[in-house]
Write a structure and sequence with these properties.
This protein is mostly helical. Helices cover 48% and strands 0% of the residues. The protein is built from 14 helices and no strands. The longest helix has 18 residues, at 45-62. It is globular.
Amino acid sequence: MGEQRSEQSAKAAKPRKSTTASTAASASASPPRHKSKAGTKTESRTALVRRARRINRELAEVYPYAHPELDFENSFQLLVATVLSAQTTDLRVNQTTPALFAAYPTPEDMAAADPEVLEQLIRPTGFFRAKAKSLLGLSAALRDHFGGEVPGRLKDLVTLPGVGRKTANVVLGNAFGVPGLTVDTHFGRLVRRWKWTDQEDPEKVEAEIAALFPKSDWTMLSHRIIFHGRRVCHARKPACGACPIAPLCPSYGEGETDPDKARKLLKYEMGGQPGQRLRPPADYPGRPAAPLGAAE
């Protein structure tokens, strides 16, 4: 029940003023009225904190439905799915895990799995041999040291094979309701573009961003930043001209600024395409993804 409540708590209230599509369209129709000096060396600490928190508020209106984009029903499934998500998309993980969890619903089941059978089940996610070794190891550790239950403490989670701080924070924030920052590639890219930090090391990024926000904001902030990175603020060509927080971004102009061209760069529900989850939350405004092998 706690895990069900924690996933439900990741859903924010509906936007007060507009839908996501209209918010993005409105932003793309009018680029920033001025070049912000935010994020420069002269920005004070107080100004940085205010700007960072305003961006978070704006993202909350754009993505009131932000959520973990991995399908899961309990903490063990979320842990396994997060380990599998390394070096692949959440979509591919979501397409792979139904058969995996049907075969191995508990840590005890997965710990006893035939390695070759397990490897073939997770093969679509890539690096399947290394991932199978991690899954077998963490499942055995859960069975032998934690009574077959996923622990709810960071110091315990990071002792599991294949589990680092990022994976641990995903599980803590979304299965146990313990605030945490998920510093993945999207998160790191955006917070550096916004000049919240210039750090590259994930732990240093986590520490600096954590200091800008109340602890209670950390989990949802992570979801919003990752959503924005996947949909609008892409690595190679960000859709600056369709970005709803462009006036607050010191890196505006690194990507496409023409509104019409920028809108064509939007992904997932922002671009009218399916999302990454086969079973998204009820308030998700886009279409569910297709199962593995189905025509999309």
